[in-house]
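The authors assume throughout that readers already know how a fold can be written as C-alpha cells. A single example would do more here than another paragraph of explanation. An entry of this sort, consisting of the sequence and the corresponding C-alpha cells, reads as follows:
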Amino acid sequence: MIKRLLDLGSDIHVKVNLRKFLDWVEEHGWYFAKSVTPLSWAANFPERGWVSREGVSMIENVDQ
C-alpha cells in the first residue's frame, strides 16, 4: 500500500491529526497524535512492532 501511494505522488510531508484506538495493548485506550507526518507517526507509535520498517524505509528514500 505504501509503495502504491508513493507511486501516485502522495505528499510525505503532509501533517495531520490522527487518533487510533488501541484495544490490543495492555492498557486499552485512544492514542492521539497532533500535526504528524508519516515518519513522525511511525517514530512515536507506542507499539513499535506494528510499524512497517520496510514502509518507513521507502518513505525515507523518497525524502533523499
User: Anything to note?
Assistant: Residues 53-62 form the longest helix (10 residues).
